[in-house]
Specification:
single chain, 190 residues, mainly alpha, 79% helix, 0% strand
């Protein structure tokens, strides 16, 4: 990684952390230039190892510990989802007249995804140490916390209402589920 990429990542992490504390001014820390927008996609490089921890923790907390981890499918899905949301968001921002907020939205979401992945990895690893009956509810709360965080990041980045931000979160979830199903079918054919 170059010095510029590392500096941009540190800036992105600082912004994501400020947003996690409920401070919308985290958006102001981001590099919202075209170059900063494109560099925010390097966030996926930070997410890949964190995603491995999430997968290991989920497998460990599953009732049947012998469930194999579909690593290839998981990483294809991760990368495809990372590329899909910007396309969905481009369409939605155009429909809603929020095109001027597209770059802040994607830049903020990319860096926030690193923090979400770290939070999920740590949470799920800790949850995996608990007795089986306590796990599902705590897993639910961990995932719910990441959704609330996504909602706040989208609301701050779009500078819009909570309802519109909720629509973006929902669109992200639905498009990710659709993509996962499509990839599952394609991988089963191959």
């Amino acid at each position: 990684m170059t010095v510029v990429a590392i500096a941009d990542a540190m800036r992105g992490f600082a912004a994501a952390s400020l947003l996690a504390r409920g401070n919308a001014r985290g958006i102001e820390l981001l590099d919202l230039s075209v170059e900063g927008f494109w560099r925010s996609f390097q966030a996926v490089l930070w997410i890949v190892p964190l995603h491995a921890l999430v997968m290991l923790a989920l497998t460990h907390t599953a009732a049947d510990a012998e469930i194999p981890i579909p690593w290839t499918a998981e990483y294809i899905s991760l990368l495809a989802r990372f590329a899909l949301f910007p396309l969905v968001a481009l369409l939605l921002t155009r429909i809603l007249g929020l095109t001027q907020r597209y770059v802040p939205l994607i830049t903020a979401c990319n860096w926030a995804a690193v923090l979400q992945s770290a939070f999920l990895a740590i949470s799920l690893l800790l949850i995996s140490l608990l007795p089986e009956p306590d796990r599902p509810m705590l897993q639910f709360f961990a995932f719910a916390a990441t959704l609330v965080y996504s909602w706040f990041v989208m609301r701050a980045a779009l500078a819009t209402t909570g309802l519109i931000a909720f629509g973006f979160v929902l669109a992200d979830m639905v498009s990710s589920l659709w993509l996962d199903q499509l990839l599952d079918r394609l991988l089963q054919l191959g």
